[in-house]
Amino acid sequence: MQFTAWLEHTAFSIWIRESPSLLVFPTFLIVHAFGMAFLAGTNAALDWRILGVAPQIPLRLMEKFFPVLWFGFVINLISGLLLLIGYPTKALTNPVFYIKIGCIAGGMVMMMLIRNRVIRDGRDGKMLAIVSLIFWISAIVAGRLLAYTCTYLMADLQC
Amino acid sequence: MLKAFMEMLLHWLPTTTIAYYMRGSWEWPAAESLHFIGLSMLIGTVGLFDLRLLGLGRSIPIHALHRLVPLGVLGYGINVFTGICFFTAQPDLFMFNPSFHLKVLFMSIAGVNVLLFYTTMLRKVRLLGPGENAPLPARIIGGVSLFLWLGVITFGRLLTFYKPPSHWCPWC
Question: Under an 8 A CB cutoff, do B39 and A37 touch?
Answer without folding.
Answer: yes
